[in-house]
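PROTEIN DESIGN WORKSHEET
SECTION A - STRUCTURE
LENGTH: 374
TOKENS:
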């Protein structure tokens, strides 16, 4: 079958949606399908895929979004595609995959970390209004055959928000690279990263990974850190334009030396090896690949009920899932308990991650596509 994958941006070395797009293309090609990617913005080159641009001259973000939303699916069909699978907010796809959740859900959640005026400005901005318009038209398009969600957290929201028939909405969890993310062998990696950032070998360390610190709950995590006994270290790997304000927040709480900002890191697996746990109390996280990557590395995890990957936590790790990520007191209690949890959590984490490979993702996606034939 000739399958078109739609994505506003194609970047062979990107993360997030771009990484999921490439993984999907690889899985479908391995199943014998012919894959072509249609994108508006193409970064870099690749010999691995046919990539075609759908777009025109550089214009405003909102207009570019609408242009791609309306043009991508027809362009794919005109090129001979038998099936159109969209990774972005487009209109007219056979399958819509929601990797980041509904934009409307994101805007609702943003009220938790933005001021009232800031949230209102987002909703009124042309770019965000264009996203709201296109995603509603896309999910309510009469020809839509299936909506794929990366978690039940996302699926249930899509069904409710866009009045999708429950039978048309399915959850297919992302996979994790079990070879790249493995439990630590020896202490070399652990020691190297700790030495690089002047972290004592005996210190208890949790790593926070991600960009967009506010959405991922870093502010509330820093507030909680001052109340966790034993003077643990919080190692922050990621980028945010307000990093300095978070550092100042830690200094004002008297824990400036215990919150280490490492910046963006190309090899996050090394940071997992240097840590004792992952801390990611997100306020809105449709899936959270980093949760599965940490678990595959043998790290116990503190996350929140607003993270889709929390659905995949083993029973032994569920007591450390935060119900109210804006409550720094709850975060402190659960994080302290996680630091004192049995060492057997490492094995539980790895075993849980091993169930969710990209091969499994490919089988489930292929089965879904096969069910649509005819």
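SECTION B - SEQUENCE
RESIDUE ASSIGNMENT:
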């Amino acid at each position: 079958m000739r399958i078109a994958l739609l994505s506003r941006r194609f970047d062979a070395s990107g993360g997030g949606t771009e990484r999921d797009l490439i993984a999907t293309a690889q899985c479908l090609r391995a199943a014998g399908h012919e894959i072509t990617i249609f994108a508006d913005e193409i970064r870099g080159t690749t010999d691995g895929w046919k990539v075609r641009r759908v777009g025109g001259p550089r214009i405003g973000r909102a207009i570019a979004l609408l242009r791609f939303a309306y043009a991508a699916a027809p362009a794919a069909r005109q090129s001979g595609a038998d099936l159109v699978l969209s990774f972005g907010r487009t209109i007219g796809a056979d399958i819509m995959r929601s990797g980041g959740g509904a934009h409307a859900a994101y805007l609702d959640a943003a009220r938790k970390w933005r001021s009232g005026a800031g949230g209102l400005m987002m909703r009124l901005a042309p770019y965000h209004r264009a996203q709201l318009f296109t995603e509603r038209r896309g999910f309510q398009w009469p020809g839509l055959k299936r909506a794929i969600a990366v978690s039940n957290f996302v699926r249930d929201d899509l069904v409710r928000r866009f009045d999708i028939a429950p039978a048309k909405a399915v959850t297919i969890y992302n996979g994790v690279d079990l070879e790249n993310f493995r439990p630590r062998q020896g202490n070399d990696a652990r020691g190297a990263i700790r030495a690089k950032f002047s972290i004592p070998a005996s210190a208890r360390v949790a790593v926070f990974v991600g960009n967009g610190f506010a959405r991922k709950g870093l502010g509330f995590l820093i507030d909680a850190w001052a109340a966790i006994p034993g003077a643990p270290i919080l190692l922050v790997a990621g980028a945010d334009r307000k990093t300095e304000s978070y550092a100042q927040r830690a200094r004002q709480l008297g824990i400036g030396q215990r919150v280490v900002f490492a910046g963006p890191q190309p090899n996050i697996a090394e940071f997992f090896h240097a840590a004792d746990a992952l801390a990611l109390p997100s306020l809105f996280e449709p899936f959270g690949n980093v949760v599965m990557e940490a678990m595959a590395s043998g790290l116990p995890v503190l996350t929140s009920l607003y993270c889709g990957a929390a659905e995949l936590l083993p029973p032994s790790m569920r007591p450390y899932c935060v119900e109210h990520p804006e409550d720094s007191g709850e975060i402190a209690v659960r994080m302290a308990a996680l630091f004192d949890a049995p060492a057997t959590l490492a094995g539980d984490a790895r075993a849980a991650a091993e169930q969710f490979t990209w091969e499994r993702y490919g089988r489930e996606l292929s089965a879904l596509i096969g069910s649509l034939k005819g």
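SECTION C - NOTES
Residues 209 and 359 are 25 Å apart (CA to CA).
The two ends are 12 Å apart (CA to CA).
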